Every structure is written in structure tokens, then in C-alpha cells.
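Explain the record.
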Amino acid sequence: PLISSYVVKKAQSFTRAERRAILEKTDCNMFNFPSSMVVVDLITDSGTSALFQQMWAALMLGDESYARNSWYYVFLDAIRDFTQRGDKPNKRYLSLFEGPESFEEIKKNFMEDEKERGFVNGGVFQLEHPNFFILPQGRCCENVLFESMRSYWKSEKSPLVLSNGLFDTTRANIKLREFDGVDLFLPEIFDDYPLDKIGKENPFRGNIDLPALQKALEKDSARTALIVMTLTNNTGAGQPVSMENMRAVRKLCEQHNVPLWIDAARITDNAALIKRYEKGYESKSIPEILKELFSLADGFHFSLKKTLANMGGVMCLKQDGLFDKKYPKIGDEMKKRQIIHYGNDSYGGMSGRDIAAVTVGLYQVVKEDYIYSRIDQCEYLAVELAKRGVPVVLPPGSHAIYVDINKMFKDSPWQDFMGVGPVSYTHLTLPTNREV
């Protein structure tokens, strides 16, 4: 079977009256409500995914050495496999399953890898020109990124960060460093979409509005610090971005000398949706589509907590890319902040066992049976909810179903926190086995 259960977890049963008592004490704040009382937990997929059995095996091989644990160089090469090698990965991690590294394998890290460039410089060159950073999660990457960038801007006006849709922690880190974040959604992003087309086609409503982007760059390219493409577009209901849109954004970036950055939290899902719905990509593999997506970027950050692991993040800058040229020596600034705030550069706040797990996990999350099982679940749930009159955003993304609360409560006098209502109501109405 595709999915097997290996762990039994006892769950306590709580009555509606008991749940109501705690809801009142917590003022209906779902982030303060005890998870042990939740019947079905749909609050997030961040850090909550089950691990692949290969990842559990890697955990047992974790190395907690403080400096250059045995998985460090293997992790670097796994990121090269994931972002640059497509269908021709090295899979260097396999050597660690066979036993301790030999002298020849260790020597590769300093001699053969010395030639590596791209998103992960190799060997001693990584020390001289750092462009790969391990961090605890995505928001830590954003903190280091925008704090490091800010020192390069001295103008009175706040620098601009343009995006197809900034995730909330990205926007918060942008605002904290006194940048202005601007979302350029498609005008039709939340328009109605016919149910009978779900699963057959996708309009890629996670795309950035290209005319709006071009207009913004023509007006303020000198003030634009970065263009961030979020894949998939989480703020835009998790909808995907097309390769065509990414290529067009890349062209504008080069014309206006503005770096292109990818928030890669769910880039594997985005690649899978490109394969399924974008013309010309039907026969391409997920790794090859990922290779093409990353080739368009000057840098990226990647929350490894999304559908991959329980903890982790990574950030990379393309050697000699637009970002590297616009912000010279910024890798040194980032490394200082990584070490001061999160830990030595060989672990960046992650345990050795977690580094081992995510290294192996990178090779599992690109498998089509895994990705499409999740995408198909979302499509099925969205269609069934829509059939029952729930105003969900269509077509659905890959990681969540978004309910249009403004449509659900269009006559409500509330202006804020309308989403709390149906969540609290669900807690109060779901029966338990003591009440059925």
C-alpha cells in the first residue's frame, strides 16, 4: 500500500461542553487552544507531516558533531541534486547508509566539490564565497535575508519588494526592515471557476500580474530591491504559478536589473501542477521541472517544514547571479547573522539528525505518487465542499482548501476575524463517541 500505519496514538475524547469551556477561556484563539482537544487538526501543514520511512532510517544515522557533521556535505550535494541536476542526481547520501565515509569520499568534499558553483559553492570556496545557509525554518531565512539587504539601501524612500503574493512571515520580515511589500495578484485570482473544469485544466491564478509588474518596474525599478515569487502562491489560496509566467518575470528582471527570488516552500507541488496542466510539460519529470524553475532564480529560501520534515530551512544565492552582483559580499553578512542568531554554519539551529532526515527527504518528495495523492485529496475535498454550497476558492491549490469568508458571511457586521466563527462553531458541534 502507498500509506501504512506504524504507530497507534491514544486520543482522549472530550464533550462539546468541555470544549466550550476551554474555547471561552482562550477567547476562541485557535493558536491557544490545546491540540489534545482537537478532533481534526487542519490548522497547518507546517512541520506536521509524517516522515518517510527512509527519513526515519536516516535519523538513526544522524551526526551531532558541532563542526562539519558527516551529513553537512551530503546535504549540500542533495540541494545541488534538487535544484540543478534534474534526472541526474548524485545521491551521495547513499554512501552514509553503507558505513562511515572513506578517505576518498571525504576528499571529494574538498577537491571535486571545489569546482561546484551555482546555488551551492563547493569545498573551501563555500568558505570564501558563502552562498548556502542552513536555518531552523523559512521565517528565519527571511529574517537573515532582509536584515542583510537593508544595509545596502540608504535612500529616504523605503525599498520595494514586489511579489505574486507574499506569505505573512515574509511580509512581516519585510516590514520589520522598513521595506514596502507589494502584492501584484491577478485581477481574477478569486473569481468563480466552473466545477466541471477542476482536474481537467488550471488557469494558474497564482501568477503575478505581468502588466502591473512591468508598470511598477518602469516607474520604480531603481527603488525595487527584489521580486519574490511564492511557489505555490500561499496568500493566493495556494494556487500555482506557470513556467510561462516565471520566464516572463525573469525577462523583466534582466531588463530592469532586479533580482528574482523564489519562496520555494511548496515548489515541488507547483512543479507537479505544471506537469499536469501546462502545455509542453506533460512528459517532463518533476526533478527536470524543478531544475528549470530554479534556473530562473537568483536566490531562494525553502522552508523544509512544508510537506517534508518537522523542522528546517535553507537559503541559497546563485553565484554570480543578479542578486550576488546587486548586493556584493552579502553572503558574508548573511553568514554573520546565521552564526550569531542560529548557530554554526554547519547546522544553523538544526540538529544533526534533522539534517540527515531532510537530506533523504528531498529525494522522496519529488515522487509523483506522493505529490499527486496530496493534490488529488485537495481537489476532491474542494469539489465536495463546493457542491454543498461552501464558498471555497477554485481551483484549489495543493496544500489546503481556502474558504472565502467574506462570501460565507456577506451580511455579517464583523470586519475582522470572521474565520474564527466557523472554526469555533465546528469545535462546538462535532460530537464525540460519548455523545453519539
Q: What stands out?
A: The longest helix spans residues 368-387. Strands lie at 132-135, 160-163, 180-183, 224-230, 260-263, 299-303, 313-317. The mean pLDDT is 91.
